[in-house]
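Table S7 (text form). Paired inputs.
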Amino acid sequence: MDAKKPFVAVLLIQTIYAGMFLVSKAAFNVGMNNFIFVFYRQAAATVFLVPLAIIFERKNVPPLSFVTFCKIFMLSLFGITLSLDVNGVALIYTSATLAAATTNCLPVITFFLAVLLRMETVKLRTSSGMAKIAGVLICIAGAATIAFYKGPHLQLMLHHHLFGHHNSHEHQSHVSSGATWVKGCLLMLMSNTFWGLWLVLQAYIMKSYPAKLLLTTLQCLLSSIQSFFIAIALERDPDQWKLGWNVKLGAVAYTGIVVTGVTYYLQTWVIEKKGPVFLAMSTPFALIITIFCSAIFLGEAISLGSILGGVLLVGGLYSVLWGKSKEQKMEKTSSTGQAEKETELKEEVAAQSPPPPFFV
């Protein structure tokens, strides 16, 4: 039973992420401003995380210098605030399925950024290096397929959807417009690039501020402040800021508390048990769940281009992960062999050296 727990955990994580795409899209479909949504989401996450940070890490608070604070502020601005704001605009222009599909290219984007920042190396003459390059190219092909090829639409024969009847004519015109769809795809990739940059630069920040929960809470707090000023500058209508007992409040609570709180713990636990590659390989589950749920609950028509592009993105993801996994195995084997050689050399030297005087 214990061996199955990581598999159940990653399935739950990807189900939660699929739900995030669906409820966010549903909130936008009923007219919620995406910038206000991001502010409420981050505020809810902050309120949820502050007590946890106080309880679990109040005794291990590392010093926070001004330089480190500025780094965390900029990381929050680009990696969280702008990433979520751009993602919200892209989600309005496209679909929940596209959001789930492009998430599969996040590990590839992260790897590409790590190479540019010289945190990763690519050995072109090895099979692992070729697999990584091939994965990047396949992901580019998948993104281009989603953006520029729609093909026939596949829609389930359901007439009563949970949120689909709220769709406005403006929203429908967005989806049917080819230029708007391409714009949404590019914005979605930009959002994932910001997110990937956030993941890469976390390693630098963690060296000077190693408290994970406190760092996450601080970033959520800073992101709440940043997103508030962006939202208040772009939306002054008081009615847009009101939350009733409807899908808007549910989406804010779900993304702020469940996505930020529950998945944070589950992902940490899975990485500790099975490693980051195992977690990354489960990403396509969110796409599969979103495809069916968006058709049932949102009444979205799934285009053939989205399915083909999603398949290419998943293929590119696994190609990069396979190359990374093989490279790690080779490094582990090499280090083990080197350690064995050093041990053998020490034994030979010890056997050839003369015995101490008191043994003669």
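Next pair, protein 2 of 2.
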Amino acid sequence: MKEPVLEEMENAGGFGNGFHGVGEKDDFDPSAPPPFKIAEIRAAIPKHCWVKNPWRSLSYALRDVFVVIALAAAVIYFNTWISWPLYWAAQGTMFWALFVLGHDCGHGSFSDSPELNNLVGHILHSAILVPYHGWRISHRTHHQNHGNVENDESWVPLTEKLYKSLAYSTRLLRFTVPFPLFAYPFYLWSRSPGKEGSHFSPYSKLFAPNERKDVITSTLCWSTMAALLIYSSYAIGPIQMLKLYGVPHLIFVMWLDLVTYLHHHGYEQKLPWYRGKEWSYLRGGLTTVDRDYGWFNSIHHDIGTHVIHHLFPQIPHYHLVEATNAAKPVLGKYYREPKRSGPFPIHLIKNLVRSIAEDHYVNDDGDIVYYQTDPELFKSSNSKSD
């Protein structure tokens, strides 16, 4: 059955006349039901793109682990005032690369072996203090419900009612850069506003009863790593551990929050979120955004090719660029070509700052909604400082 034709989009508060970009590019409506089916996209992708090579996947994991160890050894050897900042930036980026490979394990795109996926995933994610199964399950929920205001899991829009129920200080922190870039550890412990549960508790609402053993296993692995870090702090000193592990981990968290946010927010044209009968897996997935990270694309395993990854998370990361290029003719205007980056993706800072300053909440009602701005948020902050 074809989805119904959508009514005209209502204007959002705080943006003047309409939404950013709506009606600006050949009057293309990004919320209109696509004229193609997901099977057509799948058919356009070459068959070899679906093949998972465990040896190739393991080679990426071993390479990244080697780089992590080499960086730590190098900074300990040189131990100069300039080597430490360089180390922090490089090692934090490599922690993020480890996360992406563990993420692939969680999707099953690392290999066809669940046992290998879970083993490697636990090693990589526990090393950077991520509860592998707890996060894997919640991330699966995100993929299955992306673009759904009510059921999505990652960077979900606040409804207007929920937004206004938050303390002013909470709103200000949530929508002021750089604070959202440090959100991930808090999300692991207590999820997002309006949602209950923890990634560490087997009895969290995130998990089904048959998933509790997996969650316990991951929490134990996380706890073992945390204990190892505490022991190391006594062995070599807390300042040295902060320099070797703490600061890189903080930079990893910033990478994670930056990338995951910008894959779902901050596009120049406002993109829709759905409820009820208007939502579908395909329409939700088509609101994701590809990003170009310059030199970092290969370092963090082409995670910027996010649209095809969201629709088909079982495709290995080393085939995503080819799969994306093959799918573009089918996707047409529903694919948004990312802005080309220089060596460093500095251009994305503008997208991040603008989106966080403007994308505050969505309407409480309606099956197709767009982010709206609270025009009083920063006015209140300025008046309180005066």
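The radius of gyration is 21 Å.
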